[in-house]
């Protein structure tokens, strides 16, 4: 399916153009510590126990698995630029390319971390929701939880899990024990190996996009679709 420049710009106008500057990080361990967060489960009143068998191989993915174009998005759930990307630019990319089957889209964690307390725990909660409920659940959770960025809490994670049709107590347990820390650190290592130093970082068929606004990403996808 060939997308017109007019339709793409209409989508960008609706969501706003995101600037190129993101959250910057350097080399290091990404802030993973293995320590518990000490979540207050609030109204959910959950008895949090350590998850025993997290699916560390789960890769949050949307679109046609056989698509010729692969988009990879590296994000830190505590980076405000990532929240802007997910809430403003990503919906345009999803509508224009994922529903049509033109693109395979993958989420990758890259905990800088902007906030050492929450980066890996929120990423763990997101992966757990997705591993249990599927890819749509992951992306529904990630969108919902980004809306609480800056005021993350056990209740915010539980509410985002409910929005995604997941178990709030299981999501909070994943966060409390950073159940998917190993997977997040593996993603971060992969990102560093291809030159990621900040978030959000978007790649189209292995090539970095200059910026993370819907227009820049759309241009890169169109170029890949046309074989340029």
Molecular structure report:
The protein has helices spanning 5-15, 80-98, 119-133, 135-146, 154-163, 168-176, 181-193, 214-226; strands spanning 23-24, 61-63, 69-75, 103-109, 198-199, 201-204, 207-208. By secondary structure, the chain is an alpha+beta fold. The chain has a five-stranded mixed sheet. A two-stranded antiparallel sheet has the order 1-5. Helix 4 crosses helix 5 and helix 5 (154-163) packs across helix 6 (168-176).
Summarize the SSE layout with pairings.
Elements (H helix, E strand, L loop, with lengths): L4 H11 L7 E2 L36 E3 L5 E7 L4 H19 L4 E7 L9 H15 L1 H12 L7 H10 L4 H9 L4 H13 L4 E2 L1 E4 L2 E2 L5 H13 L2
Parallel strand pairs: 3-4
Antiparallel strand pairs: 1-5, 2-4, 3-6, 6-7
Helix pairs in contact: 1-2, 2-8, 3-4, 3-6, 4-5, 5-6
């Amino acid at each position: 399916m060939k997308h017109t420049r007019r339709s793409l710009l209409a989508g960008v106008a609706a969501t706003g153009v995101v600037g190129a500057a993101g959250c910057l990080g350097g080399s290091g361990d990404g802030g993973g510590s293995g320590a518990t967060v000490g979540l207050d489960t609030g109204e959910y009143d959950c008895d949090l126990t350590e998850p025993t068998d997290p699916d560390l191989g789960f890769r949050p993915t949307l679109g046609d698995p056989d698509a010729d174009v692969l988009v990879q998005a590296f994000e830190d759930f505590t980076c405000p630029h990532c929240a802007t990307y997910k809430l403003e630019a990503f919906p345009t990319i999803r509508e224009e390319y994922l529903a049509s089957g033109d693109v395979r889209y993958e989420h990758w964690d890259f905990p800088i971390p902007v906030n050492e307390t929450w980066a890996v725990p929120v990423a763990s909660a997101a992966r757990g929701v997705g591993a249990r409920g599927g890819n749509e659940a992951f992306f529904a959770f990630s969108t919902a939880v980004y809306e609480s960025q800056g005021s993350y809490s056990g209740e915010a994670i539980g509410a985002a899990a409910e929005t995604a049709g997941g178990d709030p107590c299981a999501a909070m347990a994943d966060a409390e024990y950073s159940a998917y820390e190993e997977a997040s650190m593996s993603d971060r290592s992969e990102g560093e190996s291809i030159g990621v130093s900040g978030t959000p970082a978007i790649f189209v068929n292995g090539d970095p996009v200059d910026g993370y606004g819907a227009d820049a990403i759309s241009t890169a996808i169109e170029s890949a679709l046309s074989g340029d």
